Amino acid sequence: MEGLIQTRGILSLPAKPIGARRLLQPSHGLKQRLFTTNLPALSLSSNGHKKFQAFQSIPHGISVSHKERSRGFICKAEAAAAGDGNVFDGGDTAAISVSSKIFGVEVTTLKKIVPLGLMFFCILFNYTILRDTKDVLVVTAKGSSAEIIPFLKTWVNLPMAIGFMLLYTKLSNVLSKKALFYTVIVPFIVYFGAFGFVMYPLSNLIHPEALADKLLATLGPRFMGPLAIMRIWSFCLFYVMAELWGSVVVSVLFWGFANQITTVDEAKKFYPLFGLGANVALIFSGRTVKYFSNMRKNLGPGVDGWAVSLKAMMSIVVGMGLAICFLYWWVNRYVPLPTRSKKKKVKPQMGTMESLKFLVSSPYIRDLATLVVAYGISINLVEVTWKSKLKAQFPSPNEYSAFMGDFSTCTGIATFTMMLLSQYVFKKYGWGVAAKITPTVLLLTGVAFFSLILFGGPFAPLVAKLGMTPLLAAVYVGALQNIFSKSAKYSLFDPCKEMAYIPLDEDTKVKGKAAIDVVCNPLGKSGGALIQQFMILTFGSLANSTPYLGIILLGIVTAWLAAAKSLEGQFNTLMSEEELEKEMERASSVKIPVVSQEDAPPGESTSQLSEKSTSTGI
């Protein structure tokens, strides 16, 4: 074999090569690197053959035929065989084989991560403003109260979410991913701009106040909640659109796009960090909400301060929305997509009902849906009880909105801190432990909140020494509970949920995300609202039903933990299968050198040479 290398080089061709020519043609990427880099001169001096010059950079404007490049590639292989096998000497090797890095991260990866972080920043900046504004609109409006919220979530938000999911499923079958993204996000941007500058200033003209008053007098005060939906329908539509922004833009559009352009290794490293910039947005958006809340108090008499601040905040929302569209365009324009395993199961085009049946029949999707629904019900059971205390403590819209601005800022700081710790959790303990932290945190903090409400009497003297009333103490403890629960959700629960989509095939990924994120999220919130409505009707008030709500919370979190454990095993199995498929694809791409029978040394056949080449790793 050594003699063969010295006399003929690694590759020897028959007189009339047929299939070998295709085998020896280098890939486009390799040819580009070979013919655009200055390399040191190499020669071949053994056995009296001519010396071959090493490849030099080709001047711009001079063309090289395909045949000449192929011949050069063969000469390169012979030069490597004659020498040490190291064609690229010294620093040239590192320059060619190692891509550029900044802070230890490849530039190509940074071109994905930085725009995605900015997109998430803009999306959550908007969501914080919308979330803090929607409650003020519907709760403080004339003829409305906090009782409208359970009806909105159950009878308005959920049907619209289901309708959107059906429409999104249809559009995903006929539109490209880029067209689908713009088709979904642009109506949100247009609506929020129109609401601040057109619909709210005309609210006195478009709201049926007289009809609602007449129906309320006929039906009685117990129907105030449902009638308020009709009375302030434009505010209710804003409430639903703000809720859908969180479900659609955050969960479906952003995370779907992130899953499309990142690999699993990149996701494990950077998904928890995506939220760092986003939670800086929470801090700044919380300050923004508080600033405009305080500005309303400083305006002159006769000026609708809320209308002025609403126009300013909706202008910010529109600007951030346009920035999101620009970042999406830039990434699609300049960032290459990663290669996926080609052996995924190809799913046929399915109608809406077929898609729903397929998703329901998948244990993997069912477990994911359980996680999302359980979170929605659990946080709603605690959050609505806390908001009832918050409304009692801060009845003024200005005070209520200012407190929510502080709440958002504290949530951003806590989440930022947990984001820094989440990467360590994923690296040290893996997906399964990370997925179980959020339900555990929610359970522990929920128990503390309900305990203070149920057994507040013994704590009254201590609370008085701290300068607080029992009501204010409950508000602060509930705020801490919501801050820790939401920070655990943003830093651990959301990345875990999105990582679980990556090993799925494309059809399940697209339609599964639409069904889970758009339907199951509102279903969880509406489920919590239905439970609370039933408890109020059964026990007379929300306060009387508090012990039973605590028991229900315990049962739901237990089911949540069980689903997370089941999903952990399925996720690990799918990831192992994907890694095996990639290894098989890499193995199948290895090509065996071709040696003609006439060029073989005496006494050795072609098959014997192939076996020797394989055994020596050539």
Question: Could you characterize what this model shows?
Answer:
The structure is a single chain. The protein is mainly alpha-helical. The protein contains 22 helices and two strands. α6 (107-140) packs antiparallel against α14, α16 (363-393) crosses α20 (506-539) and α16 (363-393) runs antiparallel to α21 (546-588). The longest helix has 58 residues, at 397-454. It is globular, with a radius of gyration of 32 Å. Mean pLDDT is 74; it is low at 1-98, 342-350 and 609-618.
Task: Briefly summarize what is shown.
The chain is mostly helical and 618 residues long. Helices cover 76% and strands 1% of the residues.
SSE string = HHHHHEEHHHHHHHHHHHHHHHHH
Q: How much of the polypeptide forms β-strand, as a percent range? A: under 5%
Q: What's the tally of helices?
A: 22
Major beta sheet, specifics?
A: 2 strands, antiparallel
Provide mean pLDDT, rounded.
Answer: 74
**Uncertain segments:** 1-98, 342-350, 609-618
Helix content: over 70%
Specify Rg, calculated over alpha carbons.
32 Å
What structural class results from the helix and strand content? Answer: mainly alpha
DSSP strand count:
2
Shape: globular
Distance between the termini: 11 Å
| Spatial strand arrangement across the major sheet | 1-2
Pfam families: TLC (PF03219)
Subcellular location: Membrane; Plastid, Chloroplast membrane
Keywords: ATP-binding, Chloroplast, Membrane, Nucleotide-binding, Plastid, Transmembrane, Transmembrane helix, Transport
Protein name: ADP,ATP carrier protein
